[in-house]
Each structure stands twice: as C-alpha cells, then as structure tokens.
Amino acid sequence: MPTVLIADDDADHRELISLALARLGHEVVEAVDADSAQRALAAGGIDAVLLDVRMPGSSGIELCRRLRAEPVTAELPIMLISADVNNHRILAAMDAGADDYLTKPYVRAELLSRVELLLVRRGTTATRPATAATAALLAARAAVPRSVQVPLPRPVRRTA
C-alpha cells in the first residue's frame, strides 16, 4: 500500500487525515513541521506528501520548493492544504511546484479523491518526465525570478 506523509503542526488535523487514509489502506507517516517532514522523506518509502501551508519554521510552500529542487524528490506528488484561500498564497504554492492545493474546510471524500489522483499520476509512467526533462524543468524553475508578481483582479465593491 502507498505511504503518505502528512506534515501539519495541528495534531487534530493530522489525526483526521491519518484515520481517513488508513481506512483506504494507506500507510501514514506524520510530521509536525517541515524539518521533521524532511527527515521522514530522507528515510525513504514515501509515495505522496500532504503539507500544511503554515507551520512553525519553514512553511509548506518553502518545503515544497526545496523538494522540487532535489532530483530524488522532484517527482514526488505534493498537495498543500490550508485554510488560506488568498490567491497569492495559492499561486505561490503552485509556483513552488505543488501538484494540488486543497482549502480547509474540505469534504473528506474530496481529500481522499485528490490523494488517490496524486498516487495514480505518480504510478503512471507515461506521465512521468524523463530524467533529462526533469533536469530541464528544475533549471527552468530556478531561472525564473521570484520577484515577479502575478497581478490579481481588484475586488469589486458594491454599494447600494
């Protein structure tokens, strides 16, 4: 069965996700912050990662960026989960290389469905880039200036 790493500083949230994934037969590894998540990944055997955006120390977005920069974890399926629905934060997560972004609160069925899709994509060799393509992708990501801001539409204020 696939092993999923859950990195979240909220113990209740980790437990809820762990129980849901265990019911589907997944093995679960839990981490309380980005550093312990990175240690768990270094130990190997992780098939997908669920990261909370806001954690003590490094954020889930920063960890995602580091994982994408390492050839060993560059293709690892990563989903960021957060109560933050700010468009800038979501775009930053996707720019960091996240495969998916789920906002809290969420329906458990949606979480489980998205995790299954991440795992299916990982197991499909046709969708996995070749080593040279992965290296080119990592180089292209590194070359893009991080100071580029994506303009977002201004909110419309309605007055009566």
Automatic annotation (TrEMBL):
Residues 3-119 form the Response regulatory domain. One of its GO terms (biological process) is phosphorelay signal transduction system. Transmembrane segments: none annotated. It comes from the Bacteria. InterPro entries: Bact_response_regulator, CheY-like_superfamily, Sig_transdc_resp-reg_receiver. The modification 4-aspartylphosphate is found at D52. SUPFAM superfamilies: CheY-like (SSF52172). SMART domains: REC. Pfam families: Response_reg (PF00072). Keywords: Phosphoprotein. PANTHER family: RESPONSE REGULATORY DOMAIN-CONTAINING PROTEIN, STRESS RESPONSE REGULATOR PROTEIN 1. This is Response regulatory domain-containing protein. It comes from Actinoplanes auranticolor.
